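On clarity, I found the account of how folds are encoded harder to follow than it need be. An entry of this sort, consisting of the sequence and the corresponding backbone structure tokens, reads as follows:
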Amino acid sequence: MALLVNLRHLEEDSRQETGELTGEELGLTDIDELIHTPLPLQYDLEVSLLENALLAQGSLEMTLKCECSRCLKPFDLHISEEAWACHLPLEGEEAATVENDCVDLTPHIREHILLELPQRPVCGDDCKGWKKPAKMSSPSKQAEATEEAPSPWAALDKLKLD
């Protein structure tokens, strides 16, 4: 269910809106193969009607289940915005859509969450990525391989440019 705010209820005083929106309601279910939204977004907003505008301000919190883009380990990413604010004009070119005296805040919350998402989620700053398993070979074979490997520049060293 979307977060709809009835403008008629705001004519006398501001209102407190508290609740949650699922990833499906926010349209965040298929945003990335490494980011999943099994837990809902929690919101606590004060919504007030200004002159020809709607002001919503408060807090947003959501925990995402992610996979590290370097090592593929699962981790939780917590998004918390204590001072989120949204100013929506009700008149003019950029006016918010009003249907049955209601304004939907869901797309504005969705946009904010999308801007908070990392392009490539990483489990930590010190993540070195996926480690390739070491091949089982004897130390003598490894020494021979490093000694015998010709330099890629060796062929260029033999060229004589006159």
In short: The first strand starts at residue 4 and ends at 6. The mean pLDDT is 86. The first helix runs from residue 23 to 26.
